[in-house]
Amino acid sequence: MNVLIIEDEYPAAERLQQLLSRLDEPIEVVKVLDSVESAVRWFQENLSPDLILSDIQLSDGVSFEIYEKIVVKSPIIFTTSYDEYAIQAFKVKSIDYLLKPIKLEELQKAIHKYKLLKSEFSEEKNASKIEQLLDNLQHSGRRYKKRFLVKKGEQLVPIVDDEIAYFYTENELVYLFTPEGKKYVVDYTLEQLDELVNTEKFFRINRQYLVHLEAIRQIHTYFNSRLKLNLHPATDDEVIVSKGKAKAFKQWLEG
């Protein structure tokens, strides 16, 4: 197996190579690259490797810029110290997303996913089924954001997802509401939050609300095939599940 490493920190690159050498299979590291520029140039001049291990924050930008500039067919395992890039990573068809410091068993699991993918590509000619396999692998490794930092006076306070009743947007600001009725501004759009939170707990019911399951007190049928919710804490305006979301919302409630 030929592996390309994209990592701008020498100790981290060395550790990756050491971990790869401990796996029970022959692996050749074809190159270690440390920047967006060098990676783009390398891909233009060389054949794609079997697998890419890619850091996200590089010396001259983020590695997503590489995959925006050129077509990379190789599966990617992202490695990083930060979890805020997880959703963006899966959008470029990564196999896994490993947080530093990387453990041997985590790398082994990610390599196993690669093997599954490789087997499917070699044995299955149906492109739609290959796409489905990629989607399944991505969702199995997805990490949801569990905490949000909010400003409370002069302090920054983390709030875990189960202490959030709902997110609400108004006048281009997004607010986090707690079950106790406390309200904080968060530095995300509702669209970003919809991708970051655990979708088993939260549902985007309309353009203004992203609600936690535990915040829903009552559900009423409403005209034009919509639903009306009573939330806790209570809201000043009516909370309506849009017609286009009503069916998916009911399926979500059923688990």
From TrEMBL:
Residues 148-255 form the HTH LytTR-type domain. GO terms for molecular function: DNA binding; phosphorelay response regulator activity. The modification 4-aspartylphosphate is found at D55. It holds the Pfam family LytTR. It comes from the Bacteria. Residues 2-115 form the Response regulatory domain. Transmembrane segments: none annotated. PROSITE patterns: HTH_LYTTR, RESPONSE_REGULATORY. Keywords: DNA-binding, Phosphoprotein. This is LytTR family DNA-binding domain-containing protein. It comes from Roseihalotalea indica.
